């Protein structure tokens, strides 16, 4: 199931170059992410009215081409759908050509993305004024020329950290720590603080480069999984993955040293942690943008809703596992040393997770919280 990205030796994260401003090589490819990302689409669907507002109010004067860009587009199913929506407002507002830019890490499955952009060899957007392109690069770097982007968007992506702020996380596999229900590990206060700081610095780095790329008055819509007062999106998924991995640490098949250094480099932010770099004076990005809208909300999770309706535990465990496999597998694969039958071990880890979910679903409840902000680039 791994995406086949090449591996460069480095002690604890073989495929990731420290200069890449990335901590993953992407989602599981070959259509697997697309097939298992309806929950992420539900999060996007909730902000479509906000996207409409951005597309309606972004200034389109003094341009030769209107550009909209999506950062962290993955294989593109959700990226295409959300771009289609923005085009319904933008196209009637201008007679200029519109360029859509779909960007992700160089190791992303761009072949699937291109097929999504040009199914049957023609543009999926079906309009002769729309031209699409893909850009490989970290969203924490500048990827487009100065003042060239009108509408920038990112969905379910900025939670992936640009760098690993701590070398090892021996007590758990994700920075926010275990859920209260499962409580199967720990993250020290010092580590927790390092992740929270990194997450803010990542927003600062992202805003800094988008501020360069955007035209004055340009819009930036940021949506990401996170945490609210009572929901933390990491609960459940990382508890069951942690339990599954630990069962292979016990047998010695997953080396203990690799476990100590392995963690999924994603951080669940509160809304205030997302907006702080926009306003707080200690950040270089303070004052570059006006905040037009913010929101935090819970997203309906299709496999949870289905399970409530039909009680089909096997289907629930399978869909739940595929959901988190799609965004955790490459990091887990990169955390393992080059051992024989690594792919088989990965399969067995996810099969074990599915088994644990089937055996004890109440230990791993999953809820998805999303946080969002719409910004305008100041003159
Ligand atoms: C969960 S997927 C979201 C995909 C899509 N936007 C959606 O909402 O369905 C997160 C995406 O962010 C990308 N990503 C992670 N770190 C990144 C970085 N530093 N720069 C660009 N993309 C990154 C991953 O490769 C992945 O495709």
Keywords for this entry:
379 residues, alpha/beta, seven-stranded mixed sheet, 12 helices, disordered N terminus
User: What would you say the CATH architecture is?
Assistant: 3-Layer(aba) Sandwich
Global morphology: globular
First-residue to last-residue Cα separation = 46 Å
Bound molecules: S-adenosylmethionine
Please, what is the CATH homologous superfamily? Vaccinia Virus protein VP39
* Percent of residues in β-strands: 15-25%
Question: Strands of the biggest beta sheet: in what spatial order?
Answer: 3-2-1-4-5-7-6
Extract low-pLDDT stretches.
1-14
Write down the secondary-structure element order: HHHEHEHEEHEHHHEHHHE
The overall average pLDDT, rounded, is 95
Q: Rg to the nearest angstrom?
A: 20 Å
CATH topology: Rossmann fold
Helix content: 25-40%
Number of strands: 7
Q: Tell me about the largest β-sheet.
A: 7 strands, mixed
What's the number of domains? 1
Q: Can you identify the CATH class?
A: Alpha Beta
Class by alpha and beta content? alpha/beta
- The helix tally amounts to 12
């Amino acid at each position: 199931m791994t995406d086949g990205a090449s591996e460069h030796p480095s002690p604890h994260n073989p495929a990731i170059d420290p200069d890449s401003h990335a901590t993953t090589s992407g989602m599981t490819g070959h259509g697997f992410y697309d097939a298992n990302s309806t929950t992420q689409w539900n999060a996007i669907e909730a902000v479509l009215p906000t996207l409409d507002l951005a597309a309606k109010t972004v200034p389109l004067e003094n341009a030769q081409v209107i550009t909209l860009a999506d950062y962290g587009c993955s294989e593109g199913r959700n990226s295409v759908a959300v771009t289609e929506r923005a085009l319904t407002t933008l196209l009637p507002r201008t007679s200029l050509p519109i360029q859509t830019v779909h960007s992700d890490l160089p190791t992303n499955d761009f072949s699937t993305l291109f097929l999504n952009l040009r199914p049957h060899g023609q543009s999926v957007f079906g309009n002769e004024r729309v031209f699409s392109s893909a850009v490989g690069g970290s969203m924490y770097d500048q990827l487009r020329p100065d003042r060239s982007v009108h509408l920038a968007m990112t969905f379910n992506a900025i939670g992936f950290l640009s760098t690993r702020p701590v070398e090892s996380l021996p007590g758990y596999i994700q920075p926010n720590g275990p859920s209260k229900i499962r409580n199967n590990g720990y993250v020290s206060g010092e580590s927790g603080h390092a992740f929270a700081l990194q997450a803010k610095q990542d927003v600062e780095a992202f805003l800094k480069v988008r501020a360069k790329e955007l035209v004055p008055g340009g819009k930036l819509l940021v949506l990401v999984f996170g945490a609210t007062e009572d929901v933390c999106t990491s609960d459940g998924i990382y508890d069951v993955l942690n339990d599954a991995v630990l069962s292979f640490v016990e047998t010695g098949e997953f080396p203990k040293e690799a476990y100590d250094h392995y963690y999924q480099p994603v951080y669940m932010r509160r809304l205030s942690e997302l907006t702080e770099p926009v306003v707080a004076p200690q950040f270089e990005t303070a004052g570059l943008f006006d905040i037009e809208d913010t929101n935090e909300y819970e997203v309906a999770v299709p496999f949870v809703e289905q399970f409530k309706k039909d009680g089909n535990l096997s289907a629930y465990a399978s869909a739940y596992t595929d959901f988190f496999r799609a965004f955790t597998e490459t990091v887990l694969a990169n955390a393992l040393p080059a051992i024989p039958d690594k792919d088989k071990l990965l399969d067995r880890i996810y099969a074990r997770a599915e088994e644990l979910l089937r055996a004890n679903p109440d230990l791993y409840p999953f809820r998805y919280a999303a946080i969002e902000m719409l910004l305008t680039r100041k003159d």
